[in-house]
What we know:
Layout: H1 3-13, E1 19-28, E2 32-41, E3 54-63, E4 66-75, H2 78-86, E5 92-95, E6 109-117, E7 124-133, H3 138-143, H4 145-148, E8 157-158, H5 181-192, E9 198-202, E10 205-209, H6 211-217, H7 219-230, E11 235-238, H8 243-255, H9 261-274, H10 278-290, H11 297-306, H12 310-322, H13 324-327, H14 331-339
Parallel strand pairs: 9-11
Antiparallel strand pairs: 1-4, 1-8, 2-3, 5-6, 6-7, 9-10
Amino acid sequence: MRKTNYWQKKDDILPNNTLTVGIELDVYDDYQTFPTEFMLETPQRKITDDLKELYKSKRSYSSMKEHKIIFEWKIDQFNSFIDSSLTCTDDVKVESVGFSTGAKINDAWYLRLKFKNNEETQVKEWLSVFLYLKHSDTESLLENKDSLLPNNIMTLCVDLIVLEDYTSTTMKVPLKILKPQIVDDFEKLFNKKINVDVILIVGNEKFHAHKTILSARSPVLASVLHRMQESNNNILMISDVAPEIFREMLRFIYTDKVDDLDSKAVSLLQVADRFKLQTLKISCEESLRKSLINANAIKLLMLADQCHANLLMESVVNYIVINIDSVMKTEDYKTLENSKPLMF
């Protein structure tokens, strides 16, 4: 590999500044010949019932056992090795530990990594990997060349991994969103009036409900229903509430939901305060805070005071202080100033 190519692609070639060299090596033992005996039946001889005259013959076969190893060599801090080669006039090299395939010939190998000088410019341009056989006896090496080099062929294998740049892919994964089962079940109770045990009469309409659910959600209704239980009365009269508003209050008690809250927030805030439905009360205050303008600031101030709506009161007061000049010009402000001058 050329050095210039290395520096251009070193982040891909050397993850974590580590060079990994892999080699797959095959070594074959000497051929071994094995004799075998087998029986031949001669067709020229007559075969009797008592004896089959058999003639023995011999044949042989030769085999060679293959020994394979996959050797991995990791060189950490490889950039330091590159830097040292730039200041050295000779070839820079590093060698691996020895390894063997376990063949009978007691083979021993090692790898050598070298930065090689260009013969003309003496600049280190090539990074090379060599496989060496550790043999002190050249004659022994030549004697075993048929085993080490079957068919006079040396086979070298390298397992090379090159990593490209990270890429980000966005996938749309369909998610199955499960509805809260308990809300669905309670809404079914509200709509289908299953096993109801109390009737609430509001104006000219009757609403069927469950004492347990009403008691769990509203401390005011819980107290009233407890007194009804002592008298075995299952009918409750509710006054000073519009039937459509009471229906939405019941829907919230069962499901924590209200249809078109913004248009009914004022009336629902009043019943939420009356029946101590704190969650509904906060939802109404949030809705009314979003609708705050010069024209309704005084009305919302009076509503917040009437319903003990602290969140709404804080928002309205801050709004009036900031926009006092514009609010003082409204008819509601003038009416309030005349009716309750002590407030101003």
